[in-house]
Predict the 3D structure of the following.
Amino acid sequence: MTTFALRNVKLRPGEEFVTALQVELPSFAYGGERYASVAPETEAKLVIDRTLSGTMYLLRLDARLHGPCYRCLGEALLDVPINAREYQDEKPDDPELETPYVNDNELDVSGWARDAIALALPEKILCRPDCAGLCPQCGKNLNDEPHTHEEPKADSRWGALEALRDEL
């Protein structure tokens, strides 16, 4: 877990602190599947801005994840650019004005990066934009073996309903 000691940063209102750091990105579950960072650590930029009433935190990084494709279950690589902001009020009277990533003058950068990545992920993670997926009848990967199946013959027990549909 990557943390940043905030007690080392002494800022007055209007001042800014900028640093580069290596952030450990833990793997996480998304949609019941496990996704992990390609590199165990990634370069990130942390900006701390002091305002009159609190502190603004900015985290920028580019994460590269791998995990299963939503359609074909093959390997998917995904680049996720992160530009996340958090605000911590000096005297928060509302939970919306404090960040869950600051505890005892320590900023949990890994947890914040993980959550920011999870929020930035697309609804469906695909190995490629035109992924054909798996065949619903035989389960073969349609990207590797494009094919079709013959239409199944209608069950004779439904014949009376078919005749009624044709009349309407």
The chain has a mean pLDDT of 91.
